[in-house]
Design a protein that fits this description.
The chain has one domain: MetI-like (MetI-like fold). The protein contains 13 helices and no strands.
């Protein structure tokens, strides 16, 4: 076999090897979390990397009851759904404007808008805290919903705009000839076509908002209003020596996002790849 013929095989082998290593790095900790959450605390201390001898969900039940996770679970759902609706609705409108409408300062405004992609949360968290305290929003769900929505908005606009840019303008031109308004074109023609990217943005937003820790930790000090992430921190502090219980609580919090991603992974792939192709 010639050197030229062997080169693609070598490159493919290296790529697959790297992918396998990355997969192991991500999958092994997740598998360890779930398997260890079904063991006793003594078993984990004696043999941290061992497997459970039997399927036992006692730790999950105990963690759910002791941490009052039912209440915090509902709060996390309310925050996540509210933020996702705000992000998807606002981002799709803004992306359509940046992609399809001609107005003064469009490029400058879009560039300024995307600054949110590089600003860390810590850079404006103190200012937000002071602002929300002055207007009476501190220790409320809005103190989490509004900032998390604003943080997720720039990426959502970027992804949806790139997708809209890939759509042919002839779709709108024929509708304009028939007398359709701008909002009618956006709502009745563009949005149904944009289902893959909307699903992608929805999934990313759900995962990011659900896993957000810093903002709810700072903005909500009332125990009854804490979402799952901050309630887990308090629960882990109180039960720092019980590894099995902490891992069970972590597994309960992480599981919904695994389900969301698995169910929508095809839409995510379609949304990302479709936006990269000009048509």
């Amino acid at each position: 076999m010639s050197t030229e013929a062997r080169s693609p095989i070598v490159v493919r082998t290296i790529v697959w090897a790297i992918m396998a290593v990355v997969l192991v790095i991500y999958v092994v900790p997740i598998f360890w979390m779930y398997s260890s959450s079904m063991r006793t605390n003594g078993e984990i201390i004696l043999n941290p990397i061992g497997l459970p001898t039997r399927i036992d969900f006692t730790n999950f039940i105990d963690a759910w009851q002791m941490a009052n996770m039912g209440r915090h679970f509902i709060i996390s759902i309310v925050i996540t759904l509210s933020s996702t609706l705000l992000v998807v609705g606002s981002a799709s409108l803004a992306a359509y404007g940046f992609s399809r409408l001609n107005f003064a300062g469009r490029k400058s405004l879009y560039a300024f808008f995307l600054l949110g992609l590089i600003l860390p949360v810590q850079s404006f968290l103190v200012g937000l805290f002071v602002l929300f305290r002055s207007v009476g929003l501190l220790n409320s769900l809005w103190a989490v919903i509004l900032p998390t929505s604003a943080i997720a908005l720039p990426l959502a606009v970027l992804l949806i705009k790139n997708y809209f840019d890939s759509l042919p303008s002839s779709i709108e031109e024929s509708a304009e000839i028939d007398g359709a308004s701008t909002f009618t074109i956006y709502h009745s023609i563009i949005l149904p076509i944009a289902t893959p990217i909307i699903a992608t943005v929805t999934t990313f937003t759900i995962i990011n908002v659900w896993n957000e820790f810093m903002i709810p930790f700072v903005m909500i000090q009332t125990t009854e209003l804490r979402p799952l992430t901050t309630s887990l921190y308090v629960f882990s502090t109180r039960h720092s020596a019980n590894y099995a219980l902490r891992l069970a609580a972590l597994a309960v919090i992480a599981s919904p996002m695994f389900v969301v991603y698995i169910l929508l992974q095809r839409q995510i792939q379609r949304g990302i790849t479709a936006g990269a192709i000009k048509g």
